[in-house]
Design a protein that fits this description.
Number of helices: 7
Distance between the termini: 25 Å
Shape: globular
Number of domains: 1
Order of helices and strands: HHHHHHH
Number of strands: 0
Structural class: mainly alpha
Helix content: over 70%
């Protein structure tokens, strides 16, 4: 349950330490980028969240379908890579962008591996379908904000990342109802 808390504390602390970027319409990359005065806060929060997601995935390894825990692991690793390779001042890092995109894709797709596994309890399969739908809607909102330089760009990014961090915790906390 720590990953979502770490993210929220990181968002708030990084924003307080570096009040320049408007949280409503600026990316978290502005808070963790090389030009940010206290970038270590956001880098630490994103990196810690990535490690925690990997630990959750490893904890689910024996109980969850292989595709589910592998996607979850990949999402955590890519989040860590994105955190450790910041955006430069006045430009962008291809490694950061690709790693962030792959993290978002893996963390959005992993519930589908639960949804399509006959080993998973029917209620968890349906909940995973709903979770995937919610994550896809949030990703679409973020993408629309990104492409149009929307007013809600920053908040949409924060909501997506938080939602992606919450679902693994929900699954792990429920004791994942998977048959052997």
């Amino acid at each position: 349950m720590v990953a979502p808390v770490v993210l929220v504390v990181g968002f708030v602390a990084a924003q307080a330490a570096h009040p320049g970027p408007d949280p409503w319409n600026r990316s978290l990359s502005a808070l963790s980028g090389q030009g940010a005065s206290s970038r270590w806060i956001m880098v630490s929060a994103l990196g810690t969240a990535g490690v925690l997601v990997v630990l959750i995935a490893l904890g689910l390894r024996r109980r969850a379908p292989r595709a589910a825990w592998q996607l979850l692991t990949a999402g955590g690793v890519f989040l860590l890579v994105a955190a450790l390779d910041p955006q430069p001042v006045g430009g962008y890092s291809a490694v950061h962008m690709v790693a962030a995109g792959l993290a978002w894709a893996a963390l959005t797709a992993w519930p589908l591996a639960l949804a399509f596994s006959p080993r998973v309890d029917r209620r968890l399969r349906w909940a995973s379908v709903i979770a995937t739908g919610v994550l896809l809607v949030l990703m679409a909102w973020f993408t629309a904000q990104l492409v149009t330089d929307g007013t809600w760009y920053g908040i949409s990014e924060r909501v997506v990342i938080l939602a992606q961090a919450v679902w693994p915790v929900v699954v792990a906390a429920r004791g994942i109802e998977i048959g052997q």
